[in-house]
Amino acid sequence: MRFFALLKKELRECLPWMATAAAILLLFGSLKLIDSKQRQIGYQYRVFERYSEVGGYELLTRPISDFSIFVFMSAVGLGLALGVRQFWADDFMGTWGFSVHRSTHRTTILAAKICAGLISIVAIGLVWCYLFWRANSSGYFVFPLPERCFIGGWLICGMGLLFYLGATLVGLSKTRWYTTKLMGLGFALWMFITLTQQWTLWWGFGTLVIGTIVLLFLICEAFLNREF
Amino acid sequence: MALWIQITPGSDEPIYLQIVEQVGEAIAKGQLAVGDKLPAVRKLASELVINPNTVARAYTILEQSGLVTTKTGSGTFVADPSSRDKDAADINMLTDRMDGILSRGLNLGLESQDIIAMFKDRLEKFIKTRQGGRRKND
Amino acid sequence: MTEFVLETQGLTKFYGDKLAVDHIDLKIPRGCICGFVGRNGSGKTTAIKLMLGFLKPTAGSSRLLGCDSQDLTPAIRQRIGYVAEGHRLIRWMTIAEIAKFQSAFFHEQPASTKQGEAGWDSNFFWDMIDYFGLSKKQKIKHLSNGQRAQVSLALTLAPNPELLIMDDPTLGLDAAIRRQFLEGIIELIMRQGRTILFSSHILGDIERVADKIVVIDKGVIRADCSLEQFRTAVKKVRFVFGQTSPETIDIEGLLGSRRSDKELEMILVGTADEKIAEWAKSSGAADYQTINMNLEDQFIEYTAPAGRNKPFTWEEK
Questions:
Q1: A176: pLDDT confidence band, cut at 50, 70 and 90?
Q2: Which of A103, A146, B124, C177 has minimal Cβ neighbours within 10 Å of its Cβ?
Q3: A94 CB within 8 Å of a chain C CB
Q4: How far apart are CA A46 and CA A54, in angstroms?
Q5: Cα distance from A76 to chain C (closest Cα, Å)?
Q6: How far apart are CA A192 and CA C119, in angstroms?
């Protein structure tokens, strides 16, 4: 089937980046786990948990802050790298002719690329799952990390998705003016800032979903109308 | 059958004319006898790496000048010389060519009798080769 | 009525202010081998990209196999082979992997000479690869330009395309590989009903392979006729005068001229022999001679600046 042939090709192209980002997250995450094991700093979180019942604000930031920066770097780094690899590289290498003259609809070609990107970001999410599970196994933190923190990690992966779609849109844009060309990333950045304004789950996922839908719509339009 | 055709693209002469000439020369020299089969259009096109239509065109011209005949389904064969008629245009082409050779010869400083002697010599050699070729094919 | 495999009507493309392609009208019938020649920057690649739906025209339209270029269906694209300039392929794949990728877009089918049947002929592909001396484990990025062109040719011919469009396929290739490329094209020509459009700078290749020649210059079609017509129409005639050669020349089909004291050399397009003789007589020329030109010279003279305003189009009957 044509979609799967395309998907296989796209995944193979994402693989090195996916593997690198996952390895970096795993490495730094593991170092953090080892570090916390040695310091047994879990008791701090209990204090914050009680304090934060009222505000709801601190609850997500504190527990995952140790990992959040690594998840953020991996997810966003991967997102940007994939956006470039899938949509900018063909321009430099002159291979759009080979890629787009295929007996499928353009939407299928785009769908294969986006699916591959999504799968890669999910891979980072799976590494986060592993780190979370590990953090909650005995011996690492005195008190376990709450579920909301687990979801928070996925939210950060979502930011990676936003930046991936933003970079994609920039890659597809054919305008000459740099300000308009970078609008995709600009939008992703705006969504990211909005997301962090109120660090609650509904706000977070709401922004993510809206941002993704808008970006996907713009990407579809850009790709289907693009000139090669 | 000893027919070896070589074409040069980028020459002043169109490719189909080059083929016509070489086949014509082969027939004149006796390398091709009456009834010999010319290579199939596709085969020749494949060997020379040219469009089959070009070969077909050459064969058509040869047929029009009476040098070959085509039998549908079998191929193209060298025709009986008695069936050829000398066209005025062909004779003109011949005299044009002769003019070219004569001007070169005179420019080289050759005398008229030298040029005539050269023509006689070449003609004799040609006929000898043709007769030799005919004997081989008998 | 002839079926036109490729048709354009008033195809025009502006890049901002720059006019790349100017009202191109082309009709290519089935079975035609069309050589598309033009100087660098003449608009060949833009025209081809417009025909394949990679660019949107500013005006006009084009149709391939009866389907509008901007809406080519997957079924139609399957019947069209395309070789892009530079033969760019997916670098990280091996020959085996890229063959597998390409074949996924076609039904597996042995070579068929019937029209409208695109199918991946695996045997033919690997026969070509063997013939080129390549192996299936070689990575595309490790191949030379010539070898990549060979793989590109095999990938494009194996699906048995009905219409083959090639953009400068032999550019930068050495003589041996160029010859192999032409052999591949000739092999395709032998199959019934195949149509080829290829653009090239190398007139020797055009002369070998093309039935029809289309000359494009600054985005405009300057000639559209059979190769033979072009070859016979563009003539160089040298006139010798007893006195000084005339300064003003008035003859139909004049493309350009060169004067020396007693000689005048003219490039004429489509001028009948009788008209030449008439002019020679009326201008008092002592003698004149038609000089054969090779295709490259004809092309150069035809697209030289002086000849810009002389359109030359022959309707195919």
A1: low
A2: B124
A3: yes
A4: 14
A5: 25
A6: 48
Which among C33, C186, C293 is the nearest to B12, CB-wise? C293
Please tell me the distance from the alpha carbon of residue A47 to that of residue C216, in angstroms, as a whole number. 79
* Nearest one of A221, A110, A103 to A173, comparing CA atoms: A221
CB contact under 8 A, A105 and C74: yes
CA-nearest of A224, A171, A105 to C56 is: A224
Chain position carrying tokens 């936003």: A162
Prediction ipTM score:
0.84
Determine the pLDDT at residue C102. 95
Hey, what amino acid is at A190?
Answer: W
Element (H, E) at B23: helix B15-29
Tokens of A178: 């740099």
Between chains, do B12 and C292 touch, taking CB under 8 Å as contact?
yes
Is C54 within 8 Å of C13 (Cβ atoms)?
no
Cβ distance of B45 and C186 shorter than 8 Å: yes
Return the residue matching tokens 């090639």: C166
* CA–CA distance, C52 with C74 (Å, rounded to integer): 12
Question: Do C211 and B49 make contact, defined as CB atoms within 8 angstroms?
Answer: no
Contact A97 C82 (CB under 8 A): yes
Q: Is the pLDDT of residue C125 over 80?
A: yes
Q: Is A55 on the interface with C (CB under 8 A)?
A: no
Characterize the bridge pairing of strands C67-68 and B75-78: unpaired
pLDDT bin (cut points 50, 70, 90) of residue A41 is low
Q: Residue B55 in contact with residue B67, Cβ under 8 Å?
A: no
Q: How far is C59 from chain B (nearest CA, A)?
A: 35
What is the pLDDT averaged over residues C125-131? 93
pTM over 0.80: yes
Sequence-distant (≥ 6) Cβ neighbours of residue A166 within 8 angstroms: A79, A83, A184, A185, A186, A187, A188, A189, A215
Evaluate whether C183 touches B45 at the Cβ level (below 8 Å): no
Range C135-139 contact pairs with CB under 8 angstroms and sequence separation of 24 or more: C135/C95, C136/C94, C136/C95, C136/C96, C136/C99, C137/C94, C137/C95, C137/C96, C138/C94, C138/C95, C139/C91, C139/C92, C139/C93, C139/C94
